């Protein structure tokens, strides 16, 4: 039995199911994935070294298949102990088939590897976009186990066009996003489900 990639499922069975569920006849009016942004926040006290920056860059490249871009501060902020030009995060923006392949792996291989996983929050941002916070990058099968001191967290932002929260949620459900059951949704804190140790993700 052959496995249909997410790229083909989005344009085939998923599109047909969404047309019936959302009662939309025009294929181009359906909600669609626009981009996926993967962010890593750089903690100045623990991660601000050339070696750690190189480790994060190489790890993100393995996870996403694309080299990250490092973000720098535009001005000094004393409360955060940052100077102008300090590196505060690394970002990868995925589109097209790279984006679809990454999401396919995330749903099929990464989430099942999370210990005591109870499902993801069904809450979106009010504009049809969805964010996932992961506290441990080593749950991705592409990367070898890292030392505890090198473990970092990341945030995955899914930008969805052509829909509100309900339409986007329907799309994500058909993609295979493991949302928590309705009865348990109120008691589930998304951040508690997604691994153990982390640095704060970059917003």
| Fraction of helical residues | 25-40%
Q: What is the rounded Rg?
A: 18 Å
| N-to-C SSE string, H for helix and E for strand | HHEHHEEHEEHH
CATH topological fold name: 50s Ribosomal Protein L5, Chain: A
What is the beta-strand fraction? 15-25%
Tally the helices: what do you get?
Answer: 7
Structural class: alpha+beta
Reported CATH architecture: 2-Layer Sandwich
Low-confidence stretches: 187-193, 195-203
| Anisotropy-based shape | elongated
Q: Give the overall pLDDT as a whole number.
A: 82
Largest sheet: 5 strands, antiparallel
Written description of the protein model:
The chain is of the alpha+beta class and 203 residues long. It has a single domain (6-193), classed as 2-Layer Sandwich (50s Ribosomal Protein L5, Chain: A). 32% of the residues lie in helices and 17% in strands. It has a 5-stranded antiparallel beta sheet. 28% of the residues are buried.
Tell me the layout of helices and strands.
Layout: H1 6-11, H2 13-22, E1 32-41, H3 44-47, H4 50-64, E2 69-72, E3 87-94, H5 96-110, E4 130-134, E5 154-161, H6 165-175, H7 190-193
Antiparallel strand pairs: 1-3, 1-5, 2-3, 4-5
Helix pairs in contact: 2-6
Give me a quick take on this structure.
With 203 residues, this protein is of the alpha+beta class. It has helices spanning 6-11, 13-22, 44-47, 50-64, 96-110, 165-175, 190-193, and strands at residues 32-41, 69-72, 87-94, 130-134, 154-161.
């Amino acid at each position: 039995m052959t496995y249909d990639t997410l790229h083909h499922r989005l344009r085939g069975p998923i599109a047909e199911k969404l047309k019936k569920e959302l009662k939309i006849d025009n294929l181009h009016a359906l909600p669609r994935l626009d981009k996926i942004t993967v962010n890593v926040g750089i903690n100045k006290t623990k991660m601000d070294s050339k070696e750690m920056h190189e480790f994060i860059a190489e790890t993100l490249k393995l996870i996403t298949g694309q080299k990250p871009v490092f973000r720098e501060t535009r001005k000094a902020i004393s409360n955060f102990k940052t100077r102008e030009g300090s590196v505060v995060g690394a970002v990868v923006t995925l589109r097209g088939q790279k984006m679809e392949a990454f999401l396919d792996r995330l749903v099929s291989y990464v989430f099942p590897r999370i210990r005591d996983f109870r499902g993801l929050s069904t809450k979106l941002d009010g504009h049809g976009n969805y964010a996932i916070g992961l506290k441990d990058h080593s749950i991705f099968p592409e990367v070898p186990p890292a030392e505890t001191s090198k473990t970092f967290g990341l945030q995955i932002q899914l930008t969805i066009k052509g829909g509100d929260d309900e339409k986007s949620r329907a799309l994500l459900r058909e993609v295979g996003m493991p949302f928590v059951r309705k009865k348990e949704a109120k008691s589930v804190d998304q951040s508690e489900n997604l691994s153990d140790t982390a640095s704060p993700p970059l917003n």
